[in-house]
Amino acid sequence: MAITGIKGFNDILPGEVEKWQYIEATARRVFELYGLSEIRIPILEKTELFCRSIGDATDIVEKEMYSFVDKGENKVTMRPEGTASVMRAYVEHKMHALDPVARLYYMGPMFRYERPQKGRYRQFHQIGAEITGVAAPSVDAQVLTMLTHFFNELGLTEPSLQINSLGCPCCRPLYRDALKKFLLDRIDSLCEDCKRRYESNPLRALDCKSAGCQEATQGAPSMLDYLCGECSAHFDQTRKYLELADTPYAINKRMVRGLDYYTRTTFEMVTTLLGAQSAVAAGGRYDGLIAEIGGPQIPGIGFAMGVERVALLLAEKEFSRRPDLFIAAMGEEAHAEAFRLMSALQRGGAAVEIDYEGKSLKSQMRRADKFNSRFTLIIGGDELSRGTAPLKNMDGGTQSEVPLDAESIRAGMNGK
Ligand code: ATP
Ligand code: MG
Description:
about 425 residues; BirA Bifunctional Protein, domain 2; Rossmann fold; 2 domains; 5-stranded mixed sheet; binds magnesium ion; ligase; Anticodon-bd_dom_sf; nucleotide-binding
């Protein structure tokens, strides 16, 4: 029996991969407008990094990590997200010594042991961005504006931006207590996980996808009503800057995130088109994270988007690549000439196809059709002896006779 891939681990085949390349290229182009540089981080990290940063009482650390002990008895984990690794690299290479402000983006696979379904996989891909060293709310607005810009650039009207604040270590404990008080009466409706985490991480219940928890948390108090003066001012200022940047948003009072390191501004780009997989991108401020993993007290903010979910939103768009020219040839000599011309034209930067096997003209024309090339050139014995051949524009149907050299063919395709 043929060996198959592993459940939840997907191949991205030609036809689909063009969409991915488009998403990645758009991200690079847009993020670089905002001064970000790419960072490439490893897939494997010490397990401890994720336990400490993401938090022990989170879904990711409790049940979703691909962790194992390697041959040297080291506890390692295939990264479930990128922020922890980027911050580990930032601290390890003392990037802050030169300038605490780092503006970074990354892209690549992440791994979580979840139940695979549409928009949820075990190996999935994120494009993420992080900005360290700025506590000012204008940078929160800048990050959100960049993310919105990216989705606009893809031509998507979904998803839309929702924001909230999770406060800081000064005000969140008050909110936690209020939420615990609220949940105490409803504790029987919570799912087993949320019951268990009632003491260690009651906020999880707000984010839980189980129907019981959704129901039980209706009307729960909002963090926004418990923000301390500074967090409240930060939230107001973030909104002011979002308005200055003309970035539309809505406030979602019950949004909490699945990772413990967030403080103050948190946000999601949400869609109604992907069922329970409604978050296409998500992130927030993490002013305590860098210190938590052993670095200096430096603030940060960032997000990650799920590339599979972005690709699903782009489902309608056509991405197949189109060669510039298909050269059909009749006879051995013409076939050799077609090969010579193809090679010269490709070196000059044109995308050219021929039929390598030199089949019948009819089957060659079928291939030309399949490639949907912009032009076709047909070479037979007559054309070889004349030294010219008909170059047909497949879109306009117009035809011109061009000399059989790469330069003339290129000029013909450029309409000269
Ligand atoms: P969800 O609530 O859907 O589980 P999450 O809160 O766990 O998402 P984050 O950890 O914030 O997600 O990751 C950021 C983004 O990565 C998500 O908004 C989503 O687009 C994508 N993502 C997360 N987990 C998966 C997965 N298992 N498969 C595909 N994409 C994912
Ligand atoms: Mg999740």
